Input
Amino acid sequence: MTTIPTTERPRRIVIALLIALTGVACTGSLPGVSAPPAAASYDEYRIAACAAWEALFRAVGNPDTASGSDLSRALDAAVTAGDADTADRLAADIVKELKTGREQIAAAGGWSPRAPVMVQLDRVFAAFEAMTEAKRAAARHEPNAVEPQAAFEQAGGVEAWFAMFEAARMAGAGSAGADEPPCANVPVTP
Output
């Protein structure tokens, strides 16, 4: 097996990421997700990115504060109560919000300066889907159910969260203009 020199690794990672993003740009969406038309400008990107963040806040709440959303808190209560029917319904509502957000992420990813950020945000959403499914399994008392936080971590959510911020840093805070305002309905600057 060939060992890649440490100085060559970042370049190969960037090349692999560019190849993956080329596929996203050519298809206008992320794999397995239907989406509105791909953003072709910062304004289109911003609309889609803010809509994605709003969906995340409706689904699971603010990941920075771990405050939860109405849906996620109700799901947690159903899991604690062992109410599988309610947990199924609430989990389905959460996953629906996450899928709506992923469609917006795919659209936002069409604007190339922030496409790498959107790739990582999509991974975060997918990890929250895994966490939600783990909660649903816990409510059903399924044998060998994965602990929800472990499901999130195993799905790459933690790595994607930090990679998203690194991708944003690399894209440059002012790539669309100085002093970008936060989204209207959530405390996030896309």
The first helix runs from residue 9 to 27. DSSP finds seven helices and no strands in the chain.
